[in-house]
Structures are given as structure tokens and as C-alpha cells.
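Record copied across here:
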Amino acid sequence: MFTLWTLIESSLLCLNAVCILHEERFLAKFGWGRQAGQQDFGAPTAKNQVLNLIRSIRTVAKIPLIFLNIIAIIFKLLLG
């Protein structure tokens, strides 16, 4: 059954996945490393915008995700 909790849990899992991506180990294999995000003059490409989004999410959401994960674990333990 699709509930609000499953929507929140799936978005939490997606945020966790974005936060644990390592640029040198994983993203560089696909050409999405730190050097790929540096752009020349001109309009930013979609690839550069996605890389900036990943870096921004990793910077901003690291600490709140710890607390959200703790809350989700406690909620799962209590209510199943």
C-alpha cells in the first residue's frame, strides 16, 4: 500500500544515496568528477548543474539527514 510514510521513506533513501556518492571513486568513472564540474565561460550545461546540485545537497543535508535517519529507524522499530 502506498502511504505518506512510504513517500517520506523513499525520499529519505534517495537523499542518503546522493549524500554517499564519492566523486573520486564513483562519479569520476563516468566522467562526473570534480574536474567535470569546472566550466569555461558561457552558459552552464545540464551536467554541471546536476553536479552542483549533488554537491549542494551533500553540503546542506549531511547533518539533518543524520537526525532524520535516527527518527526513521526509531519509527520503524516502534511501529514496524
In short: Residues 45-79 form one domain. The chain has two domains: 1-30, 45-79. The helical segments are 4-19, 46-60, 62-79.
